[in-house]
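User: I'm putting together notes for a lab meeting next week and I want to include a structural view of one of the chains we've been expressing. I don't have a solved structure, so I'd like a prediction I can at least talk through. The sequence is below, exactly as it appears in our construct file.
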Amino acid sequence: MKNHKKIRVALISGLAFAMVSLAPISATASVTEEKVSLTEYVSEKPGFTTAYLLEGVAKTKIKTSKTQPGTKVGSSTTSKRAVKGKKVIITDVTTEIGAKNTTVTTRVSTLTRKKLDESADNKPQQGVTKTSIKIGTTQPITGVAAIAGQGLYAGVKLAVDEVNAKGGINGRLIEFISLDDTFDVPRNVANMRRLVEQEKVYAILSPAGSQALPASWNLIKEKRVPVWGPVSPADAKIEPLFILGPSRTEQLRKGIDWHAKNGCTKLALIGQPNELGAEGKKAVELQLKVHKSMKLVASEEVAVRSQEITNAVLKIRDAGAQCAVMATDNVQVALVLKKIQELGLNIKVASDNGAGGTGGTNMVRLAGAAADGFVGGLQVNLPTDLSSTGVKAWRTLADKSTLPQATNNFSLQTYTYSKSFFKALGRLGDNLNWNRLYQLLETEKVNNLGAAPNITCGPLPTGRSCAKGAALAQYNATTSTWTIVSPFGPPEGD
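Assistant: Thanks for the context. Below is the predicted structure for the 494-residue chain, given as structure tokens.
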């Protein structure tokens, strides 16, 4: 049996290939020969890929010589591709310059190119029939985060119902599968697996759970099921994942800018010992370089889902903190605000959209009067801003809906995200192959009509963070209203 070993994976200018080395067929002291098989995917026109099989022989020549005096030690690699008739010749040259010897490795692959019978861009995908497209999501519809979860669900459902009422997407109706994870990490992970492997959805829209979702990224990467607009994990930089909201780090950086603008020089951070806390630390690290007069006087942790926050508040008080940013969940933000009020402290607090529930009631309802003056990041516009065309379109549907929390800020967020995804699917026509979808999404530009920052995606590794520029809103407990105090835009220093 021949031993197959994958030796190269690359993606260059829209061309991806995996080269497989078979057993060597001859060798000398300085030259080896081996059979190779290569599959490449070529972008022959926008949004369309074609698969080709390349087979032939690769010759590798290694030449060693003494390094010339004064030559700089280091390494370099070049790669050239040439087409001669039906042959494709790929020449890779690696030069390793050492203190004593220089080694030049030249690999020349001479290959015959053949179009595969079943092109990768025409392969059928799960969840798609001639009449339907199956879409899924998982949300905390019940439990401690139910207000947010019900709003997140409502936004997707509003968008699904709207597109179906208009005949679907190119004649296909959306079949919508929604699961409740109760804000429980194991259940969220189980729901994601169920959607992918049992329900066999075509795509997952706006699943919630920044703490839970990363546990599903290996599955998503393996199965290639698109995840569009999750709420609100960090960018894992994997092919199927598209982040549509300004990152938590970006929102917290804006919060630190707000504190600095209002005279705070002694900053505290309260975060969880996980990805949320890490994003908080990153935000502090970046903005302290911008605001030279500001110092971090305390950095405290609270356990995930713990309601014991007193010790953290006492420590930032004892450190003399004038302001704080929080990278926790919404319940912990509310408890910290109440404890600050109880102790009679004047420490201003800012957090991100998810933890602050900015524009809605899920956090401030718990905090009550203690939330007065709180500043939260915004990933989408305030649901009350009817001067925005995008918000007005959503609000018209939300006001007519009987769904719980259909008019809150989270509903606006997922409605806007879902609409942009359906618009992209419409551009694909009848062929919804994931290869074509990913290439389209990498060039997708969506004007959200003021409902949220516009979406511009791109290729990996950085192109899956598709929206830049958070906003900030401040809560007034007397009037129970939110007001934008910093418009959508980048943090200082960007």
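A couple of points you could mention at the meeting. Residues 248-378+473-489 form a domain with the Rossmann fold fold (CATH 3.40.50.2300). Confidence is low (pLDDT under 50) at residues 1-29.

User: Perfect, that's what I needed.
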